[in-house]
Design brief:
The protein has 324 residues and is an alpha+beta fold. It folds into two domains: 7-82, no CATH class; 133-318, Lipocalin, CATH 2.40.128. The protein is 24% helix and 20% strand. The protein has eight helices and 13 strands. It has a nine-stranded antiparallel sheet, covered by helices on one side. Strand 9 and strand 10 (253-258) form a beta hairpin. The protein is elongated and about 95 Å long.
């Protein structure tokens, strides 16, 4: 089929098809298209829009009112064949159709967590047989000297969300000066009281988190290191949530569990992770025996490079606030 190059060419094609163009008016520049597909279809190589535009789902040359369409017009016939069948609005459908729409549809809310934009796994509604924080703490062994200055790579994650990317965790000690600055900055806004005299660690992953010991077996209270709004002192009821988590050493691995979330992971020192997904699953289940929905995790090296570049920029900014 020959595509019309412009209005004059369209007229010629329609004359050959037997149309009467007595009512045709002067060609005008088209104003737009009903959708991107139609726009691309009638764009010439120079990028100038010419030829046809849509008007209420009826295709006609631009600038021509009362457009006469010839019988068996090949241009119009092809457009009719390719035109999508419109879906009637919900409000004018029959009661049975509306009922089927609501009962059979899969709403978007089913794919996201209630409190954020995290994608949920296919086992979203699984609520039973999760290891509790109390069960996780049984026989727990932890000493910070065994975990600091090591890149810990999650190789298996238990979660009811779609967490399958391994984020490297590192731990380090803090100076008294930095702890004092954190206390002054975040202390007044915490959602619960913490003992600032207890031992502390700084955990780095996607964000930095100050960990304040709750016992000597790996219980910690985490404070997310965030940028506070400039007017924070004027905000009513502003709080920073304190995150309860546990760490424990399962030699040669390190396990972490967030007590108020369905999330736990087992990590290996960088370079010592199990290889295949089957090996990761076997190692995780044998070492931790955690009850819940679990999946193997893998590193995203490209994403890590982007985060490293971002951290470098943030480090320059934070150097004036917290100097360790």
């Amino acid at each position: 089929m020959t595509e019309p190059r412009n209005l004059e060419h369209a007229r010629q094609l329609l004359r050959e098809a037997g149309s009467d163009f007595a009512s045709a008016k002067k060609f005008e520049e088209p104003l737009g298209f009903a959708n991107p597909r139609d726009a691309m279809r009638y764009l010439n190589p120079s990028g100038r829009r010419e030829g046809y535009e849509t008007d209420r789902m009826a295709y006609r040359p631009v600038g021509i009112k009362n457009y006469p369409v010839a019988k068996n017009n090949p241009i119009e016939e092809e457009l009719k064949q390719n035109r999508p069948t419109p879906i009637p609005p919900l409000e004018i459908r029959s009661p049975e159709e509306r009922n089927n729409f609501y009962t059979n549809r899969s709403g978007k809310h089913e794919y996201f967590s209630r409190s954020g934009f995290d994608l949920l796994s296919g086992d979203t509604h699984y609520e039973g047989n999760w290891t509790t924080c109390k069960e996780f703490a049984k026989g727990a062994v932890f000493h910070p000297d065994d975990v600091i200055d090591i890149g810990w790579v999650p190789f298996y994650i238990w979660s009811n969300r779609q967490f399958t990317t391994a984020i490297v965790h590192t731990f380090s000690y803090l100076t008294k000066k930095v702890v004092k600055q954190y206390k002054e900055t975040y202390g007044p806004y915490l959602s619960m009281k913490v003992d600032w005299e207890e031992p502390k660690l700084l955990m780095k992953e996607l964000t930095d988190m100050l960990l304040i010991a709750g016992d000597r077996k790996g219980l910690f209270y985490g404070i997310q290191i965030i940028d506070l709004p400039d007017n924070v002192k004027n905000l009513d009821n502003f709080q920073i949530p304190v995150i309860v988590l546990r760490l424990k050493i399962v030699d040669p691995y390190l396990a972490l569990m967030y007590c108020n979330e369905k999330y736990a992971t087992i990590m290996a020192a960088s370079g010592n992770e199990p290889g295949s997904a089957e090996e990761k699953m076997a190692e995780a289940n044998q070492a931790l025996k955690f009850k819940g929905i679990g999946k193997p995790a893998d590193r995203d090296i490209k994403a890590e490079a982007i985060r490293a570049k971002y951290r470098q920029g943030r480090r320059l900014h934070n150097s004036t606030l917290y100097v360790s």
